[in-house]
Amino acid sequence: MKFRRFSPESAPVVSKRFLVGVAVVAGASLLGYLLAAVVLFPAPITDSTTPVPSVLGQPYASAEATLQAAGFRVRREAEVPHPTALGGVVIWQDPPADMQLPASAVVRLTVSTGPESSVVPDVVNLNLELARAVISEAGFRVGGVDSVASLSTPGTVLATRPGIGVVRRPGDTVTLVVSRGPADIQVPALKGLTRDQAAARLEAVGLLVGYVRYGDVAGARPGVVLEQRPAPGVRLPRRSRVDLTLARIP
Predict the structure, then answer these.
(1) Is 149 helix (H, G, I), strand (E, B) or coil?
(2) CATH of domain 118-179
């Protein structure tokens, strides 16, 4: 039996034309893959988005300028009442602040028209404490309490300022006018009395000492009453006050 010795010359030779064909097919496949990736799944070469600035609480004109300076378009979407924001202030933005958006994207703004208006409620003939509660419930604040002589029970509300039914914004003040009771006490004469004597005489009839000031009158005894307001004989409701002017004490 004869054996054939292996030698490099006896190995099959791959054709150069075959290798060139394989390279061409592989290159075409790679190129096709790259083209498909670019066309079907495009990706930006650089980041072209910008964060939306916060404009909440700004006047609309200022908010608009801020957004336009950042490259966005602005749309005034709505105007609605707000319990605390002043009219013309931005209370909502869409999209919200810090969201990344492309240039020229639209940012919608909602603007406050201010608090809704309310009418002053009718609290006449209510007692003072109940009237305060009703005024507060209506969204107002009691700004002060004035009292006048009246046949109504002391402490009864006689009127409001502004008047009943007047339109005001929530948070505005309303002054209550209440009864001090009937003016049935006659003011006694106090001139020439000391402060303590004048106070005792007033208290004896149901009145009180009010504001006390001092003046200079030649020959007057220091500390005695020189003048009084109201004058003697005027009728006042119970617990009203009488102002005194006393001679200055050296």
Answers:
(1) coil
(2) 3.30.10.20
3-class state of residue 192 by DSSP: coil
- CATH number of the domain at 185-247, please? 3.30.10.20
Looking up tokens 């617990």 gives 239
What is the pLDDT, as a whole number, of residue 223?
92
How far apart are the C-alpha atoms of 106 and 215, rounded to whole Å? 74
Chain segment 66-83, per-residue pLDDT in tens: 999 999 999 999 999 887
- CATH number of the 49-112 domain: 3.30.10.20
CA distance 33 to 69: 42
- Compute CA distances 163 → 52, 107, 123, 158, 169, whole Å: 48, 44, 10, 11, 14
How many degrees, rounded to 5, is the angle at CA 73 between CA 68 and CA 78? 110
Q: Among 138, 124, 239, 137, which Cα is nearest to 176's? A: 124
Inter-residue contact 167 to 118 (CB < 8 Å):
yes
